[in-house]
């Protein structure tokens, strides 16, 4: 019996069109996957390998997913087995836990991928540099490093297209208002622990002896000056004040310093030595300059306690970093205590990478409330001049009450050996 031989050209066409179909649809789905899921998919075929490489490089180039004014790159040069980036969802400001997205694409870019008829993936005319270019663009270079069996049965050994994926223009996305924090006494903010809780601050009303109230904004036109009713370093409760939603001044007003996202260039660096990732200055920062707020999910205390327990379990089974922060602010009146529980573990901003230092580090924290906002933000300022490439750190708190306190690797001369911890 004569078995008809398939024509090689028609076979090739069908292979390339199914490959193209696969890649085109993969570009829609892959940006939603975690690092581990991407790594698994990258082993399946050469086209998907290339696509996952592009997504990975774009992710490495900007942890903020374009939410911030500047790209915030990851650096993991230790040649270790850790992933090249840390996977989390991004929010530039506080959000309520029931409003958090389940999925957020990362690394797709706008018009990033051009898929040829043969299923190969390109983006415009690429440079040969493999990595993150100085302008923040990501280059895939020439060739791929696929180590497995390629679509056509050959063993992957490089070759392929130059790919460059420029970072889209920065846009600030307005997600909401929330911050992370630590406990405090007598109007002073303290830090420590990591979890989410929310204690609503009572809305203030206008008293006879009080000219400023929450919910009433200033009527300054354009930019406010020292006369503005919102201008106050410490506010009425030891909490900083800024103009806000209820004010007539615009976003260019100088009294909105902490409302425009991350204010300085920073980078996320793999520190090793038991600390994991850390946040570093990528420029000189002057003393008292605002850097960023602590953004994440604002939780009820009950939810914060539940999550803390879960995170403790995960940590006891292996390396796991939670970013649940509890801020307690005892108001000067002594009648009330403000408690903020901010969890940046699943969704947060770059402040989630700031490590603890027993000597207080180079950052100070302060609660700042915008006029009209229900909750204050936990804001980070430089407590001293900071050099480029210096690690950013602050003290998580003084209290070390839990028996399962973890080892501290801050390496400061005043290191106490364990990380601050207390039950949430
Ligand atoms: C807010 S996260 C900081 C970022 C974290 N290093 C990471 O890799 O994602 C807090 C966690 O970082 C680790 N960490 C922070 N400061 C540390 C220190 N001085 N020594 C050891 N681990 C530290 C602890 O695991 C802590 O629970």
TrEMBL record:
Coarsely, its chief localization is: nucleus
Q: Where in the cell is it found?
A: Chromosome
The chain positions of domain SET read 264-397
Keywords from the named record: Chromosome, Metal-binding, Methyltransferase, S-adenosyl-L-methionine, Transferase, Zinc
Name the Gene3D superfamilies on file.
SET domain (2.170.270.10)
Cite a single GO MF annotation.
Answer: metal ion binding
Its Gene Ontology cellular component terms are: chromosome
EC assignment: the record states 2.1.1.43
Q: What superkingdom does the record give?
A: Eukaryota
* GO term, biological process aspect, one: methylation
Q: Which InterPro entries match?
A: H3K9_Histone-Lys_N-MTase, SET_dom, SET_dom_sf
Question: Protease among the record's keywords?
Answer: no
Q: Output this protein's name.
A: Putative histone-lysine N-methyltransferase chromatin remodeling SET family
Source organism per entry reads Medicago truncatula (Barrel medic)
Q: Which gene encodes it?
A: 25495831
